[in-house]
């Protein structure tokens, strides 16, 4: 299993994933924290998948959501599930929408990239971040390249070390608000929350 296999895998399993994905919103506390720190309600959901439950919850919280996913089947499901939100088919690597957002979210998506591609994503995050925007993403608790499973198929994951994530965030103009490795209140997810410095302070 390689990083290059991720999008074809999610394309194959899209409908099964959408049906079986946990929709209890165990992510709610972190999503609410993200919105509490965000200067507005424009949200970029990077690796949005089928849109339920996260983008759906954000819409319910009066957010203007733009989803991005590289798997056409996921984009189709997102548009079917959430016709009131915009969804763009694009690989997150090299994303260039020419717009800035108040919150950027990469939940259970960014960590499918190789370590090198993850490092190169931080300028992309910064380019889409409005002043004082927040960035939230999930990672592993420490550096490594484990193989997980989705709908019975193997999937690649990778993480940098916490110190390297902090350095990447700092170099891109973000200050860490919180990092909770393997949060027991969030189904064991390791969650980063950061805020963009004002351009003059970056």
Automatic annotation (TrEMBL):
<keyword id="KW-0489">Methyltransferase</keyword>
<protein>
    <submittedName>
        <fullName>Class I SAM-dependent methyltransferase</fullName>
    </submittedName>
</protein>
<dbReference type="Pfam" id="PF13649">
    <property type="entry name" value="Methyltransf_25"/>
</dbReference>
<feature type="domain" description="Methyltransferase">
    <location>
        <begin position="43"/>
        <end position="131"/>
    </location>
</feature>
<dbReference type="InterPro" id="IPR029063">
    <property type="entry name" value="SAM-dependent_MTases_sf"/>
</dbReference>
<dbReference type="GO" id="GO:0032259">
    <property type="term" value="P:methylation"/>
</dbReference>
<dbReference type="InterPro" id="IPR041698">
    <property type="entry name" value="Methyltransf_25"/>
</dbReference>
<keyword id="KW-0808">Transferase</keyword>
<dbReference type="GO" id="GO:0008168">
    <property type="term" value="F:methyltransferase activity"/>
</dbReference>
């Amino acid at each position: 299993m390689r990083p290059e296999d991720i999008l074809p895998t999610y394309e194959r399993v899209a409908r099964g994933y959408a049906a079986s994905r946990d929709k209890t919103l165990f992510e709610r506390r972190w999503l609410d924290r993200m919105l509490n720190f965000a200067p507005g309600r424009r949200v970029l959901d990077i690796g949005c998948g089928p849109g339920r439950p996260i983008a759906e919850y954000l819409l319910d919280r009066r957010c203007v959501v733009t989803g991005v996913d590289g798997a056409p089947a996921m984009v189709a499901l997102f548009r079917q599930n959430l016709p009131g939100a915009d969804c763009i088919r694009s690989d997150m690597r090299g994303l260039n929408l020419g717009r800035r957002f108040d919150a950027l979210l990469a939940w259970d998506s960014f960590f499918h990239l190789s370590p090198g591609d993850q490092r190169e994503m931080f300028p992309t995050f910064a380019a889409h971040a409005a002043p004082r925007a927040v960035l939230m993403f999930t990672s592993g608790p420490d550096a490594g390249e484990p193989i997980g499973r989705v709908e019975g198929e193997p999937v690649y994951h990778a993480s940098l070390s916490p110190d390297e994530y902090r350095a990447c965030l700092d170099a891109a103009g973000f200050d860490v608000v919180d990092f909770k490795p393997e949060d027991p209140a969030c189904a064991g997810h390791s969650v980063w929350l950061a805020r963009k410095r004002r351009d003059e302070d970056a």
